[in-house]
Amino acid sequence: MGTGKTTLINRVLDWLHQQTMRTAFIFNSRMNTTHLFDFILSEFEIPCDSRSKSQQLMKLNQWLLERYRSGETAVLIIDEAQNLTFPVLEEIRLLTNLETSTEKLLQIVLSGQPELEEKTKTS
């Protein structure tokens, strides 16, 4: 029997949608850094024709700034995060640098098994 993580995530997602927050939910944590940005842009429905990471990051940052200006919060939730590789975890950490002078533009939630805690301590 599980811990109820998925049920909790679904409840949180329902609540976030009721708050008119923009959410991206990534359930496949076995990915590389290229997949990470593809998934994030797709989940947030951000159009980007480029496969270049720098172009994708600029599109994401621009979209997040637009959300911020309109008073919306963007939330990225990644399930089974204990399966993320260290390079992907580092990219996620770098996403926390997307900010204004006073606020973070992206809220990030990592959900996973207990091994996630140990993995994030060493990354």
Structure description:
- The protein is of the alpha/beta class and 123 residues long.
- It has a single domain (5-122), classed as 3-Layer(aba) Sandwich (Rossmann fold), CATH 3.40.50.300.
- The chain contains five helices and three strands; from the N terminus they run H-E-H-H-E-H-E-H.
- It has a three-stranded parallel beta sheet with strand order 1-2-3, sandwiched between helices.
- Helix 2 (33-43) packs parallel to helix 3.
- It is globular, with a radius of gyration of 14 Å.
What is the strand and helix layout of this fold?
Elements: H1 5-18, E1 22-26, H2 33-43, H3 53-69, E2 74-78, H4 86-95, E3 106-110, H5 115-122
Parallel strand pairs: 1-2, 2-3
Helix pairs in contact: 2-3
* Overall shape: globular
Structural classification:
alpha/beta
Number of strands: 3
End-to-end distance, in Å? 29 Å
Strand content: 5-15%
CATH class: Alpha Beta
Q: Main sheet: which strands, in order across?
A: 1-2-3
CATH topology: Rossmann fold
Question: Into which percent range does the helicity of residues fall?
Answer: 40-55%
CATH architecture: 3-Layer(aba) Sandwich
The helix count comes to: 5
Order of helices and strands: HEHHEHEH
Number of domains: 1
Largest sheet: 3 strands, parallel
Average residue pLDDT = 90
Radius of gyration: 14 Å
